[in-house]
Structure of SEC14-like protein 2:
Amino acid sequence: MSGRVGDLSVKQTEALALFRERVQDVLPQCPSQSDHFLLRWLRARNFNVQKAEAMLRKHLEFRKQMKADTITTDWKPPEVLEKFFSGGMCGYDREGSPVWYDVIGPVDPKGLLLSASKQDFIKTKVRDCEMLQKECTSQSERLGKNVESITMIYDCEGLGLKHLWKPAIETYGEVLTMFEDNYPEGLKRLLVIKAPKLFPVAYNLVKHFLSEDTRRKIMVLGSNWQEVLKKYIDPEELPAIYGGKLTDPDGDPRCRTRINQGGLVPETYYAREFIKLQYDQCVSVSRGSSHQLEYEILAPGCVLRWQFSCEGGDVGFGVFMKKKLGEWMKASQMQEVMASQRYNAHLVPEDGSLTCAEPGVYVLRFDNTYSIFQSKKVSFSVEVLLPSNDNQSQPESSRSPGRDVQKGWYGGKGITLTFILLLWPGACVSPAETAAEAGSESRVFGMRLERSDKPASTTDDGIVQFMEVGDDSDERERFNRTCAEFTKDIVIKGGMNVNSQGTSGVLGVKIKLLRKSEAQRDYALCIRNDQDSTWYLLGENDGRIRVVEEKKYMLPLWLQVIVICCLLVLSGMFSGLNLGLMALDPMELRIVQSCGTEKEKKYARKIEPIRRKGNYLLCSLLLGNVLVNTTLTILLDDLTGSGFGAVVASTIGIVIFGEIVPQALCSRHGLAVGANTIMLTKFFMLATFPLSYPISKLLDCVLGQEIGTVYNREKLVEMLKVTEPYNDLVKEELNMIQGALELRTKTVEDVMTLLSNCFMIHSDAVLDFNTMSEIMESGYTRIPVYEGERTNIVDILFVKDLAFVDPDDCTTLKTITKFYNHPVHFVFHDTKLDSMLEEFKKVE
C-alpha cells in the first residue's frame, strides 16, 4: 500500500485515526487539517505515530519561530540573496506539480556567505518552500486532485571546487535538514542534469543529510537528459534552454524572470571579511623551517580540501607529490602540483581544493623557510573526498612531522679527487685485440694521487705521485713516456718494470706549470709493451691526468666566509639604520620622550642626540654601507673566481640580507633597533669622521637646519581623520578637536541654523496647555520670540522660565519675556567663531 488517501491498509487507517486524535490540540495551527497533510508526516516516519507526532509538533514550533504563515508576504530576503542566489519555479510537470530549478554553476557560495547570514539562507529557503506549498494547494483546487509535492531540476553545469567549500556544504546541509524535518514528502523527484565528474564527490558530502526515501527520488541523467525531461514535463512548460519551448516574453530561453541565474557577488555586498572555522589540528612551524602533511591517494578523482589560518604573519603553502609514503623530501625533490606561494592567512583564513588526477602521495607543505625571526602557528583542517558512491567521504590523513630546513656555510681543506678508475690496455682498438697482438694479459686497474688534501695537489717540487697496479702479468711493462706525441709538460722521473704477478710500484711525475691562458690541462697515460716496443693509450676516458691551477684566496677560506657573513650583517645594519633612524623625525622623538611608553621614552632619549646631527649621521651610514658592499663584492669575486658569479651573488645577498630584510624590520621597529645599536652607530660615526663630518657640514650650510615635520591646521585635522582607526580617540573627542581647530576659519553663518528651520514662537502667543506642550516637545532650551515677521526677533524665551507657569492660567508670552528680559545678541554673519566665543565669555 502506498500510504496515500484511497490506498491505505487497515493498520495505516488506524494509525491515521490515532495520529489525528493525538494532534487534535494543534491541528488548528497546521497549514491544513486534511488526511493528505497528516499522511505526509506518517509516511515520513513509516507510520510510527509517536515519531510522526513529535515531528509535527517540532515543525509547528519551527513555523512559529520562522513566522512561516506570513513569511511569503511579510519578509523579504536581503538584496544580495535576491540577486545572486539561484533558483526559481517555472512551469508544471505532466501531473500538475510545480517544477523548481536550481542553477548550480554560477552560484558564488563564498560571496553569498560573506554577504548574508546563515539564518537568511534558511529563511529564504523556508519562504521558497512555503510559496511552493501554496502553489501545490492552488494546483489541487485548479485540477481537482491532490498535489502535494514538487519536481526539482538541478542544473550542475559549472559545478566546481568552489562549491565544495566547507562552510557552503555545512550551510547547504542545514538547509537540507530543514527541508527533511519540516516539509516531508514534499519532493516528488529530483532530476540532476549536466553532472560533471566532480558530482559524485559533491553528492558524497551531502547525501548523509538526506533520508533513504529522498535518495531514491534522485535521478542523475546522462547525455539524453533533454528527452528524459520531456518525459516528465510537457515541452510547453519546459524552458527552451532545457529542450522545451517556454521562453520569457522577451524571448530569453533561460526564463530569467522566473529562474534566478545567480552570479558572482560583488565585494560591496560583503558584510564580513571571513567566516570563522573550527580546525582539526594545530602545528607550530619554526622560523626557517617547513611542515609537511602527507596524504596517500589511492584512486584518481579524489579531492583534497583544506582550510588553514596562521598566527604570527603570512605563511607559504603549496602541494607536491612523491612516490613513497613516510620518506621526507625537500620541495625541490618532489613534483610540484600546486605552486607554493605566501598567503596572508593571519588576516583572512585560506581555503582551497585540488582534484587528484593520479594516485600517489600528496604533500601539503607549510613553508616558513623565508622567515628568519618568527615562528608561525598554523591551524588547519584537511579532508580527502572520495568520488565513489559506495564509500562515505570520510577524511583520510597520514601526517608526517615537519622538518627544519637548515642552511649554512661550511669550510674545509678541499675534497679528495679520484682521477682515473678501471684503466684498460690498448689504444685506438679494443682491449682484447690489443692484448692479443701484444701477447700480454696485463691490465692497469687504477691510479691514484698519493697526496690529495687539496684539489690538484702537488709536492713541494711539483711532482705528482701515482701508483700502477698489475694483475696476472708476466710481461715487462715500463712507464717511460706519455703517448706517441710526447709532451714536455710532464716528465716521468725514472721507470718501473712489472715482471711478476700482483706487483705494484710508485712513479714520480714532474708537471710543468699551466700557461696563463689555461684553466686546466688533461694528459693521457700510455704503456709500452717490451716485445714490440708499441705504445698503447689507456682508453679514451680512462688513464687521464688533469692538471688545474691551485686556487689562492686573499684570506684563508674559513676566514673569508666569516668575513663575508659579517659584511652582509653590517650591510643590513647600515641599510636598516639608514631607513629606521632617518625616518625618525626630531620633532617626533621629542613627542615620544614626553608622552610615549617607558620603553619608547628610553629609546627616544638614546637616539635624539645623534638624530639632531642628521646630515652627519646620514653621511656616516651611507659611507659605511658603500664601503661594506664594495668589500663584499671583491671578496665574493675572489671566492667564486668569476666576475659574473660575484655580481649575481653579491646582488642577491645585498638585496635580500642587506636591503629587504633589514628595511622591512627597521621600518616597523626603527625606534627599538636604533636604540639597541646606538653604540655601533656612534663607533662608525667616529670611524668615518674624517670624511663624513666635512660633508655633513657642507650639507648643513647648503640645505640649512633640519626642522622636522610641522603641521598646520588643515594637515593636523586631516592627520587625525586618517589615523582615526588606529588611535584611541573616540568620535566625540575627534569632533571636539576638529571643531576647536576650525574656530578661527569658520563663521557664525557656517554653524547657525537657517531661520526657516528654527522653532520660534510669536510674541502674542498664550502659554496654555497646547503651547507649552509644543514647547516641551521641541526639545530646545532657548526659543526665539518674534513679532510680526519671523525675521523680527524681539526676545528669547528660556524654557526654565516656564517652571512656575501654570497652563491653566493662560499667561501671555509677553508677560514672561518682559519679566525676565533676556537680552538678544545680534552679530554679523561673517563674524568668526573665536570672536563669537570671546563675546559669549563676556556675557553673564
